[in-house]
Specification:
Blueprint lengths: L6 H19 L4 H5 L13 H4 L7 H22 L1 H39 L3 H10 L8 H10 L4 H19 L7 H14 L4 E3 L6 E3 H18 L8 H20 L6
Antiparallel strand pairs: 1-2
Helix pairs in contact: 1-4, 4-5, 4-9, 5-8, 5-9, 5-11, 6-7, 9-10, 9-11, 10-11
GO molecular function: peptidase activity
Pfam families: Rhomboid
Protein name: Rhomboid family intramembrane serine protease
Length: 263
């Protein structure tokens, strides 16, 4: 595996590992500087559209992304050439960040509208609905408050606490950053599936062979499903994964139209 590693893949692996080690053990503040925040957050900086893809939440997050790059990247680099492989990685990564940011702004605006609706008409049932929809932000104790609020719907103390709770959700939502090279990796995956659709891959779990087009297709279906259900307890940025797939597919489709562009 390591004997066949190509230059761009090797450099990307090295950069990601070094940045992870520095951010984990030397300069932890890099996690706040370089992660991608919502554009409405006080922590947002334009360069984060680039830097977020070199940051990772933990070792396993880094390992899964780099393992995917190591498995699929070398053959793609040999076929496309170093320049196009690097372009694919960067465009999919940055593009996924941009599209995800637009998606997160939409989600924030939608949540903000619901909070304003509650503040205009403090209804315990509506508050409970918002809590259920955003339960990933709460500890289980919040449901005890929901019950108490339902029994005291006109109590100004409960209304004030409910409003503060929802405002806290808004702050958490807008200041929740995204990190990782998954958007770029999903661009690599779709490119591999489009260019080498019948290549046999051997899965570890379950241990069985599968053609690349079916594996990538399964990832795509799962990603679309995850975006649609929008599980509030799921902290994976599935929309960024989907964005990487779409951008990668568009790039490869455009390159395939002109076979002379491969080098």
């Amino acid at each position: 595996m390591f004997r066949n590693i190509t230059p761009v893949v090797q450099n990307l692996l090295l950069i990601n590992v070094v940045v992870f080690l520095v951010a984990s053990f030397v300069l932890p503040v890099l996690n706040q500087w370089f992660a991608l925040f919502n554009i409405q957050s006080e922590y947002f900086k334009p360069f984060q559209f680039l830097t977020y893809m070199f940051m990772h939440a933990d070792f396993w997050h880094l390992f899964s992304n780099m393992f995917g790059l190591l498995i699929f990247g070398p053959l793609l680099e040999q076929f496309l050439g170093p320049k196009k492989l690097f372009t694919l990685w960067m465009v999919c990564g940055v593009g996924a960040g941009v599209l995800y940011t637009g998606y997160s702004v939409y989600q924030y605006k939608s949540l903000e509208s619901k909070v304003l609706t509650f503040e205009a008409n403090p209804d315990p049932e509506y508050f409970n609905k918002l809590v259920v929809q955003n339960r990933g932000y709460f500890s289980p104790e919040v449901f005890e408050f929901v019950d108490a609020f339902s029994r005291n719907p006109e109590d100004p103390i409960y209304i004030e606490r409910a409003e503060k709770t929802l405002q806290a959700i808004l702050r958490l939502n807008v200041n929740q950053p995204m990190v990782g090279a998954s958007g770029a990796l999903f661009g690599i995956l779709i490119a591999f599936g489009m260019l080498f659709p019948n290549t046999q891959l051997f899965l570890l779990f379950p241990p069985m062979p599968i053609k690349a087009k079916y594996l990538v297709g399964a990832y795509a279906v799962y990603t679309i499903y995850s975006v649609m259900i929008n599980n509030p307890t799921d902290n994976v940025a599935h929309f960024a994964h989907l964005s990487g797939l779409i951008i990668g597919a568009a790039l490869v489709y455009n390159w395939k139209k002109d076979r002379n562009s491969f080098y």
